[in-house]
Amino acid sequence: QVQLVESGGGLAQAGGSLRLSCAASGRIFSRNGLAWFRQAPGKERQFVAGIRWSGDSTSYADSVKGRLTISRDKTKNTVDLQMNNMEYEDTATYYCAANLVFDQRTAPIAKAHAYWGQGTTVNVSA
Q1: What pLDDT digit, counting tens, does each position of 31-77 carry?
Q2: Beta carbons of 69 and 58 less than 8 angstroms apart
């Protein structure tokens, strides 16, 4: 079992920054993948970024490349999502998810992730 708890959501202005954090605990290993997905009201859940728990491989949705950065904090056992130059379209509930093995093919697939956090909400004012 893997437990995931997100934090860091809130209100941001367009062009501003926000940092989300996902605290992971339980049976998690270097090969596992952690990812951020987001879901805006009335829209489907979409992949944002993923990282191998070891921190040596990442994957990003094209829409966020260059603005959002996923990273692993080994001292805190967290996976963080740094959001810069935020846009109104970043408004969503952000979910942290974990799967058994990280790879580029399955990282963007929500159904490939067995464990999910409760989500943290981000609102960006235009």
Answers
A1: 999 999 999 999 999 999 999 999 999 999 999 999 999 999 989 99
A2: no
